[in-house]
Design brief:
Length: 210
């Protein structure tokens, strides 16, 4: 099991990331461009959405404005794109993911990462990635996890041009507190962090001084 704080401190650009633990889930966004960095998380009736911090600087909203978190009945859906809406509209995590593919942002072809958490603590994680011009859809299903442990997946393995896609299975990690996760993310590239700990939501936004 890897130390999540050290993993993040040693990686300047994991991109967007999801960590699921026994009683909590974390989701963050990062950015290298002005357009990507010009965002904040705001609360909605059933989760959160991304919004432009300064609307006058917003360029292409297609891949940066979306609902990362929504409820689907008694389940919680967290993703790095507008596939959240597809999953909720389908009413099924796997069916929703099967309708989507990686983002059309060549040459990076950013993967779509998603999770769906059930009230009993079980959860699914998926990654939709580019593979030789086709979409490779990987699903990982967990019956739950122990106290203090979580599973981490991100869009990228690190910085680069093009950005290297996350590889392998979700990584078993320690589950630090929200403040520790926010502090561990690269100061230049981090944008926002969503934390849900036992149903209590906390949001961090760099553009709002967090």
């Amino acid at each position: 099991m890897e130390n999540l704080v050290e993993l993040l401190q040693n990686n300047p650009y994991p991109g967007r990331g999801i960590v699921v633990g026994k009683d909590r889930v974390y989701y963050w966004i990062m950015g290298r461009s002005t357009n990507s960095r010009n965002r904040v998380f705001t609360l909605t009736e059933d989760g959160i959405r991304t919004e432009a911090h300064d609307p006058s600087l917003l360029e292409d909203p297609s891949l940066i404005i979306y609902h990362p978190v929504r409820t689907m009945g008694d389940k919680l859906v967290v993703t790095n794109g507008d596939q959240t809406d597809t999953i909720v509209e389908e009413g099924c995590f796997i069916k929703g993911c099967m309708k989507r593919e990686y983002e059309p942002d060549a040459p990076n072809f950013t993967p779509r990462i998603s999770t769906c958490i059930s009230p009993d603590g079980s959860f699914k994680i998926s990654i939709l990635k580019h593979n030789d011009g086709r979409c490779q859809r990987n699903f990982f299903c967990y019956e739950g996890c122990e106290e203090g442990k979580g599973y981490f997946i991100s869009t990228y393995q690190g910085d680069g041009n093009p950005l290297p896609t996350f590889a392998g299975e979700p990584i078993e990690v320690t589950m630090p507190e929200p403040d520790e996760v926010w502090a561990a993310l690269n100061a230049d590239n981090k944008v926002s962090l969503y934390c849900n700990v036992a149903g209590e939501v906390t949001i961090y936004n760099k553009n709002l001084g967090d």
